[in-house]
Amino acid sequence: MKVVLYGATGMIGQLALRECLLDPEIEQVVAIVRKSTEKQHPKYQEIVLPDISDLSSVKEKVTGFDACLYLIGVSSTGMSEAEYTRITNEMTIKAAKQLVKLNPNMKIIYVSGMGADSTEQGKEMWARVEGKTENTLLGMPFEAAYMLRPGAILPMHGERSKTTQYRILYNIMKPLNPLLKRMKSVVTSEQLGQVIVHLAKKGATKEVLEREQLKTLALSIEGK
Fold first, then answer.
1. For the purposes of burial, counting CB atoms within 10 Å of the CB of 37, is it exposed (0-12), middle (13-18) or buried (19 or more)?
2. Which of 19, 126, 128, 166 is geometrically suited to a Cys-Cys bond with 161, CB 3.0 to 4.6 A?
3. How far apart are CA 115 and CA 21, in angstroms?
4. CA–CA separation, 53 and 34 (whole Å)
5. pLDDT of residue 186
6. Distance CA 127, CA 111 (A)
7. pTM for the whole thing?
8. Please, are residues 103 and 59 in contact by the beta-carbon 8 Å criterion?
9. Residue 93 vs residues 98, 100, 130, 140: alpha-carbon distances, Å
């Protein structure tokens, strides 16, 4: 199968890419990026665009794909609602509309966040925006759409968050990793990557997966 990846340089993008490249059923991963990562792998290619939500100039390069992993995430800290909406909602939906038109049999996997607000009416700005984005994606004519709401993620293979406070927190919590791994609310980066690839290949019965459901699915994949 062939996969389009958004967010290749972020922590979740890094872990998903790792699992994609390890999976023999995935023959090609094309990452949409603003700046080349210079990563080299036989299955990996990059499309560099100044506006990663505008695929009009590369339609032929993003046609014939089976899944989109949309794994771009930014912290809302210090951002206005308008700017957070532009990045989290407007860019996402713009890209998704083009991809589903070019690939009507495509699945989309979107990583949102624990606490995303499906009612779009709550007090938390980021949660409203994430909820709106989820709802819009679920209403689009993809073959299937899956919204992932992880809580704590334990980096396992050198993945690094772009957010400074998260990197500091991960370092502080590192001695507790063996204990945290056993918690139902915590997934390792490897587990989350495996879940993302599993959904891209085989799907699931639920469209919105909360942190405990992600952990349960991860453990079932490990025990297959």
1. middle
2. 166
3. 31
4. 10
5. 73
6. 13
7. 0.87
8. no
9. 9, 10, 12, 9
